[in-house]
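To whoever picks this up:

The nightly regression suite flagged GntR family transcriptional regulator as changed. Nothing in the input moved, so I suspect the structure step. Input below, exactly as stored in the fixture:
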Amino acid sequence: MGKQQKLEQIAYLYMKDQIIQGNWPNDHHIVEAAISEKLDMSRSPIRAALAILADEEIVEMRPYRGFFVKTSLEDVDLVAFRLRYFAICYFRLMDRALKHKASAKDLPADLDQNLNNLIAAFDSDNYLDCIQWECAIIKSLLNLSQHDFLVEEAIKCYASVLERVHNHLQAGDNKTHCAYQARNIIYIQDIIFLAKRNEFDETRTLIELLTLHQYQYFNDQEKAVFDQASPYAMK
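Regenerated output under the current build:
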């Protein structure tokens, strides 16, 4: 996926997320300048994303007035949608980190301690703390992008996905829950390993695998929402 299409997809997912949450109700006026400032991009990819949303009849163009929300999406599963949003945010933010010439020396000093905290939480079956430390580790990598708003969007999305999966697994046996979290930790460890070797670009493959790992624990309806979340390719 080229840079322009990545920007379009970020804009598309951000706007759709606002509509699904109900932050933008029917007839809400979508202000391109405000979105451009939040996402730190020009209006061109935003307009391209709006055209896709218009084709889907989610928004409509009103002559001389701009784009407005046409269809409420509050019945769409927000968490399943946000798994796709998280992955695309990560890909985009790593592009920015590389553009800013991020290196291993820029990684926070507490990265290893956060990993130790994650492992300790896992060893004590404290899965809520696992969510906290996983998010802290990924956030420390994404902060290299110098895009505070999109980093917060990504972490908010990832945390909600982890909470959903853990809630699903709490109803089952602890062995399955343990296996799920153990795999998460393996991916996180490998991501840190690559980051310390300045192989930030390669971490995107692991994030894709981590995303698909969460997907495997979704029910059929949630998987359908993820699959239909965006008309764009994942990468």
